[in-house]
Amino acid sequence: MIGLPYPTPSLRKTIRRLGRSAVLALAMLALAIGPGALAESRIKDIADFEGVRENLLVGYGLVVGLNGTGDSLDKSPFTQQSLIGMLERLGVNTRDNLSKLDTDNVAAVMVTATLKPFARQGTKLDISVNALGDAKSLQGGTLLVTPLLGADGEVYAVAQGPVAIGGFTATGASQSVTKGTPTTGRISNGAIVEREVGFDLGKLQAVKITLRNPDLTTARRIAQAINRSLKDNAAQPLDPATVQLNVPAGYKGNVVSLLTDIEQLPVQPDQIARVVIDEASGVIVMGEKVQISTVAIAQGNLTIRITETPQVSQPGPFSTGGSTVVVPRTDIQVDENKDKKLALLKSGVTLQELVNGLNSLGIGPRDLISILQAIKAAGALQAEIEVR
Prior knowledge:
Layout: H1 9-18, H2 20-32, E1 41-42, H3 43-46, E2 47-49, E3 55-64, H4 77-89, E4 106-115, E5 124-131, E6 142-149, E7 155-162, E8 164-165, E9 168-171, E10 176-179, E11 184-193, E12 206-211, H5 216-230, E13 235-239, E14 242-246, H6 255-263, E15 266-267, E16 274-278, E17 283-286, E18 291-292, E19 295-297, E20 302-308, E21 311-313, E22 325-327, E23 330-336, E24 343-345, H7 351-359, H8 365-377, E25 381-382, E26 384-387
Parallel strand pairs: 16-26
Antiparallel strand pairs: 1-15, 2-12, 3-4, 3-6, 4-5, 5-11, 6-7, 7-11, 8-11, 9-10, 12-14, 13-14, 16-17, 18-25, 19-24, 20-23, 21-22
């Protein structure tokens, strides 16, 4: 709420002279041009800094201790091979009794984790465990020591611990019930970082800021906001997705403080006019900058209904000839909606006017997709259409 000063006598006379309607209009104008009129975002919410990124880790392991819900030998032979290799590393020879080595209580799994930026040795990570074979459930299982590798093939973390799942399976003689996905689980703090990703942020001479939604205007606005804050021409946009920030002399060796000051700066991001259409679900999303030229739209539905009503024809009573037959009866009805009218959408209408105009024709999402594509083909839709 905006606070207003107490009106003086001269101001009260002016208010009475303008009238209530004019005062209401001025108040609405003050609210419209207030701080919330322009949707601004912090730089940290629309861009990332070079080097401050996550790394994906993956590993292959075994979950043991299952209650007969593990992998089968015929469908998941790799589980038995992995179990043999693990036991041999522990000094247990099982190759002489392969026929007796059962894997019903063991499941092969893929383990994934995300290595946070600047994670140090000893930092714990949450991991996700997913069955790789034909195991029915991971409930009650424990993941054995599993190395987690990065994209370069190096081990960055080691995972182990009891698996917690969010689903279950109950099976009876003739019916089973499954809730959620019992072959997927998580282990909170189940991995320990063993190797750090080397990156010295403090010694950087320049930092590149990467936009999550590349745009020339937004990149320029970010550079201008940074230069105004630093009172220096330290930031320059290189392309729609990158802004290079040269570390000023006052921040040499203290890049963390520089990025802390930069990421809080408000910037109004720009966007291109785009219409996103998901034909599978019928979802349509239109940006606020979508504009159309003058165009007339008519939409009508032609419905054809075919009804089959077979009837039974029997011979008359006490007749000596004839037989009972089924006679087909087909009823075809054609319904053409003639109430649909031609609607005119004038040039430069807003998104709200476009939606209201199409809704006035009684158009559903499916028909709206075809109409938007037809408007684009006619050259009247000044926006990019993205079909998914």
